[in-house]
Prior knowledge:
The structure is a homodimer of 221-residue chains. Chain A has helices at 11-25, 32-39, 43-46, 53-65, 79-96, 101-107, 114-126, 131-151, 155-158, 173-180, 187-204. Chain A is mainly α. The first copy, chain A, starts with 10 loop residues before the first helix and ends in a 17-residue tail after the last helix. The interface between A and B is large, with 66 and 66 residues.
Amino acid sequence: MARPKNASLTAEKVVDAAIALIGERGLEAFSMPKLAAELGVRAPSLYHYFADKESLLVAVARMVATPEAPTTMPEDAHWSEYLITQSVALRRRIVRYPQCAPLLVRYMPREKMFGEYEQLCQFLAASGVPASLQVSIVDGMTALTLGAAILGENAADYADSGDGPSPDPVEHPTLRRALDTIEGLSSDELFETFLRTYLDGVLGGSACSATPTPAVRRLPR
Amino acid sequence: MARPKNASLTAEKVVDAAIALIGERGLEAFSMPKLAAELGVRAPSLYHYFADKESLLVAVARMVATPEAPTTMPEDAHWSEYLITQSVALRRRIVRYPQCAPLLVRYMPREKMFGEYEQLCQFLAASGVPASLQVSIVDGMTALTLGAAILGENAADYADSGDGPSPDPVEHPTLRRALDTIEGLSSDELFETFLRTYLDGVLGGSACSATPTPAVRRLPR
DNA sequence: ATTATCTATAGATCTATAGATAATGC
DNA sequence: ATTATCTATAGATCTATAGATAATGC
Lengths: 221, 221
């Protein structure tokens, strides 16, 4: 068919299809011919949009990590609410395509994130958070978010109401009882309590001295 | 050479070499011929020890996740110290071969860990931790550990004394100042402060009512 | 007879390039 | 002339099996 009347591909369509394919079949099953088949074209056509497989994967990583819309927050919000909103959104993006998580780690070296970290620290500093806590907060929240996203299925799925397999009450009675106490929380809500617990630790820990508000509001039960 | 006088392979040697190879070159560069070359044999010999590539990778995941020696703790240690010791050890194992982390996630489905979770919850219950906190603690610590391990290089490496690239004081002044406050902490120590911060949150949060000791000891500065 | 290696190889990929071809824009 | 697709293909893998071979144990 050579050149079609209307171009069937765009770089964005290619990336979107790559994300979907990796999400469904996993990174190991990903290849240029398979992606092309998914898009209804032949493999060489993809090289018109990306120089090689690696630059396509870089674009995939960037897309997964980038929010669709920037976060907007009320003016008077506490800095912790801002961080929680950001973290919840990041986790949600990763969880949507957990198979892409290794790409994130591989193609987003920390030094390229200095700019973003600088912004966050400035924001924290402006909110009165002492420098000694800023690293703990940013790094801890990042680790918690990434870890929670990669674990993927979490406790909420193992409670009776969730999707996953549920532990047997006879074989695992204590785990069972513990899970019953979170019955009704979605995995988003559960993740949010993790974040708030962590921030409670930051605020309530011995190093806490110059924080504007005494505690982070907890989720309503 | 056919059969050698002394068998040159064992399942364990194969797994060890696989871990080393994946650690050095990454999961994508891993293949049976390359692993065989590393061991000084031909690829088909590996199939004598593992039915296929996948069962070899399962064995790799198991090896990375399993501690060499079980943790021993003083009798009177607080439960939080026990959890911290476990988490620090797990992170250290993952960080040693961060390229294997995707294997862990892929080949260790949560339901196979019910047994371990049951044990942890029993341990927490015996220490007087209410059921409502047990999930938060176990899941939160796991996420924090996995996330911190996968992020790999952490803030400690970006401080002046660390290995990694350091942010420029002119371009990233606030980040720079924040990192200077953790100067001198190793990445292990920094991770431990994350864990203690999280546990401070668990203990100090509003849900805290029946905890035996009021606060978790912080690392000495 | 069994074990642990080997050689040889079928069969299925994959990445990336060269060069043809048809549509479009100037 | 340029663009976006195609066909064809070189060249390099990889996984896994069949079957040979030499050392060992009975």
